[in-house]
Amino acid sequence: MSSGFEVIRAGVQSTVQDIGHSNTAHWGVPQAGAADLLSFALANLLLGNSPEAACIEMTLGCVQLRFLTETDFALTGADCAAQLDEKPLLPYSRQRAQAGQTLKLEAPVRGMRSYLALLGGVDVPQVLGSRSTLLSARLGGIAGRALRAGDVLLAKSKTPNQRLSVAIAAPQWRSQLRVMRGPQWRNLSAEAQRFFQNNHWQVSGQSDRMGVKLLGSMLEMAIPIEMASQAVFAGTIQLPPNGLPILLLADVQTTGGYPIVGQVIQADLWLAGQCRANDKIQFKMVDANEAVLALRAQQTWLSQIQRIVCSSI
């Protein structure tokens, strides 16, 4: 029998996610995929999975699963004080469960999303080249919906023998996100530009996988602008008419008509995916060179972890 688990309690919103769709924007299909791609990558890395292997993304914990067979799994992202049959587990770790054992996740103290990987990845059909769940379109995953109690999910690989448990250090969490100027940045008033960079923004409870709505002082345009829709991506910061920015996430639409004042750099997108209601965040403006150096440093760190983890597999 293939390894896998049965959902006992599904939590607020648990979905199957991978790296998302590619080359579908011209059809109006969002990329989707994991909101925190760094934690997603680390979950697969811990098991030696392909980088594209599908995982379970769990929002605000409160999940309970029962393993069907002997199973290797990995947990990353927000620390939900995970327990395997009431035995505490280290965050960012690879573990082995026996048939019938129960994995329980509490609500996280910090962060928004946790990731559960199974050996070989979660085995659901590909739709448009991805196993990701796009809730707004009812596409992918399990019938395009969030997990429910009673769902059974299987892994693509069986568990091999002689595999050790291992844990890694979590990436450094911080409230400051590095941002590059957007195409309409210069349309902001000088005061709005200063406020955007020098003040904290509070995450609204109305945020979701499409975008993080931010609360604070309204930003004003010094140069009024009417514009046609333009391409938007995860990390794009739009400014709607109410003057309160929206930081777009994984399920963002492919185009938008609001001015774009910034773009979170790729190395910090994972932090955006972990923003939760009432968090305070701050933006730091950087240039393209700094963005590239930050991404290279992150990739180097991932490569170092991969070498260490591979030696234990």
Automatic annotation (TrEMBL):
<dbReference type="Pfam" id="PF02626">
    <property type="entry name" value="CT_A_B"/>
</dbReference>
<keyword id="KW-0547">Nucleotide-binding</keyword>
<keyword id="KW-0067">ATP-binding</keyword>
<dbReference type="InterPro" id="IPR052708">
    <property type="entry name" value="PxpC"/>
</dbReference>
<feature type="domain" description="Carboxyltransferase">
    <location>
        <begin position="26"/>
        <end position="301"/>
    </location>
</feature>
<dbReference type="InterPro" id="IPR029000">
    <property type="entry name" value="Cyclophilin-like_dom_sf"/>
</dbReference>
<dbReference type="InterPro" id="IPR003778">
    <property type="entry name" value="CT_A_B"/>
</dbReference>
<keyword id="KW-0378">Hydrolase</keyword>
<protein>
    <submittedName>
        <fullName>Biotin-dependent carboxyltransferase family protein</fullName>
    </submittedName>
</protein>
